Fold this sequence. Notes:
By secondary structure, this protein is mainly α. Helix content is 76%, strand content 0%.
Amino acid sequence: MINTEYLEKCIATLERSYTCIKSVQEGTIDYEMYRNSLVKSFEMTLEQCGKLLRKKITPYFAGKKAVDTLTFKDVFREAHKHSLLNEDEVNRWFKYRDNRNNTAHDYGKAFAEETLLLIDDFLKDVNHLKEVIENE
Length: 136
C-alpha cells in the first residue's frame, strides 16, 4: 500500500490556509501570510500527488525506470489510460500544473489570486486522487 500520510498533512495545511484566508480582509498582513501559505501548500500538495500517482502507475510498466522517465503530465495521461482518472480530471490536473509552473516566473499578487480561484476544484480532485492512490 502506498503511504499517503504526508499527502494528508499537505491537504490539511492547504485546507486550513484556505479557511483562514477567507476569514481575513484582503490587503492585511494576515491575508498576505495566509495567501503565501496557501500558494506554498498548493505547490507541495501538487508535487506530492504527482509522486504518489507515479508510484500507483508503476505496476503498469515493465519497470520503475520506465516510469521515472515520464513527465508530470505523462503520469496523469497514463492514469487516464489505465482508468484511474477520467479525462476531465486529467485536464484539470494539467491546469493545476500549468499554474504551478507559473510560480517560477511570477510570485506576485496576480499569480496568487489565480491560484486561489483553483482551490475549490483542486481540493476535490486531490481528495479523489488520494482515494485512487489508496485503493488496492
